[in-house]
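Appendix B. Worked example

We walk through a single record from start to finish. Start with the input: the chain for LysR substrate-binding domain-containing protein, Pelomonas lactea, length 312.
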Amino acid sequence: MIEALDTFLAVAAHGSFSEVARRQDVAVSSVTRKIDALEAELGSRLFHRSPRRLALTDAGEQFLPRARNILGELAGAKEALQAADGEPRGLLAVTAPTVFGRRHVVGALASFLRRYPDIEVDLHLTDQIVDLSEQRMDVAIRIGVLPDSDLCATQLAQVRLITCASPAYLARAGRPQTPEALMDHDCITVATPPAPGFVWRYAGVNRNQPLPVRGRYRTDDKDGMLQAALQGVGVLHMATWVVCDHLRSGELVALFPEEATAPAAPGTPGIHAVRLPGRSHAAKSRLFIDHLRAEIGEIPWWDRLPGTDPRA
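Next comes the structure step. The output line below is what the pipeline stores for this chain.
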């Protein structure tokens, strides 16, 4: 029954027997048999099946949250029994934005796994907002202003943006002495309108409205923006967690270092770890979030930049 419930949730999530079979590395007939057996046990059809489409029936829609709860309760009971042994164990599913995950979550997970040898981790890196319940994720790292929700959120850090450029660009174009001077420079910008917290805004400049900077290079990829700045394409306005190593090495120069220590304005984006309340694996989720917060530090290590005092 447990395997059948797992398979039911997987098929409901992916909308395909063959996709679930591929992910589980089994024959399609194996997936079909489990769903057939579950439908026979329940006495109801859970899916409308046709050559072109697979969709939940009304009974399937009603059963879906109950199936999640059944497996959640079972996993919670199992975790509680394991916790009695004193050592956390089992699977933890984590999702994070691609660039942040590669730069800051993978290293934290490595030390987390060394600390807790009986825990396994599935890490999913994506820039899409993942539905924790539907995708059965335990912890999600989210960057931005969190909307109101039922999720339990822990702030790991505030996002600090810093304006910088390569020495080669500054030698060629000159160093802007004020934010207003950026209007006369090639600025590396996004190809689509940025979220409100990520615009080129400076306290007391342009009536505190975003500067309408321009440049010849635009992309929505953070690494693409960073690499262009390193190649001297233009001025970059980027989160410190992206550019910190390049500022320390001198490959990039902070144009207005006070940005790294300026008080955060209302509505400043944050970096949060979120989890579903009452979900199984809650103990492991809390352990990982606490570990990640300790790895980042009360003052995030990426905000401790040359020429700045992060305590200001």
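Two observations about the output. The mean pLDDT is 86. The longest strand covers residues 90-96.
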